[in-house]
Amino acid sequence: MSPKAVTVDNLFSTLNDDYDEAIKFIEFLSNSRKTERAQKSVATLKEIQGMFSDDQGWDSEESMIEDMAEFRRERMGL
Fold first, then answer.
1. Contact assessment for residue 12 and residue 22, using Cβ atoms and an 8 Å cutoff
2. How would you write the pLDDT of the chain (78 residues) with one tens digit per residue?
3. 3-state DSSP call for residue 15?
4. Which of 9, 10, 22, 27 is 20 to 30 A from 44, alpha carbon to alpha carbon?
5. What does the alpha-carbon distance between residue 70 and residue 64 come to, in Å, rounded to a whole number?
6. 15 with 7: CB under 8 angstroms?
7. For 59, which DSSP code?
């Protein structure tokens, strides 16, 4: 048995008939963590969606080529 399992087992052995309260508390902790992870996932998804919505593309092929040429000039220091 792992050290954490032994610790939990020892704690449960001192509870006598209070198992229901301990189980409710563990469920509360588990649900809190699940909620926290879900909120982080939603925030990350919104951030990613924002990146895609900000990228509006170019009006025309000429505009795209001009933008790419400008980018290349900047990188090459021209």
1. yes
2. 889 889 988 887 887 777 788 888 889 999 999 999 999 999 999 888 877 776 667 778 888 898 889 989 998 887
3. coil
4. 27
5. 10
6. no
7. S
Cβ 20 vs Cβ 12: under 8 Å: no
Contact 19, 12 (CB under 8 A): yes
What type of residue sits at position 59? Answer: D
Token pair in block for residue 9: 């087992």
Residue type present at position 23: I
How far is Cα 53 from Cα 48, in angstroms, rounded to an integer? 9
Hunting for tokens 């992870």 — which residue is that? 37
Q: Between 3-13 and 19-54, two packed helices, what is the crossing angle to 10 degrees?
A: 140
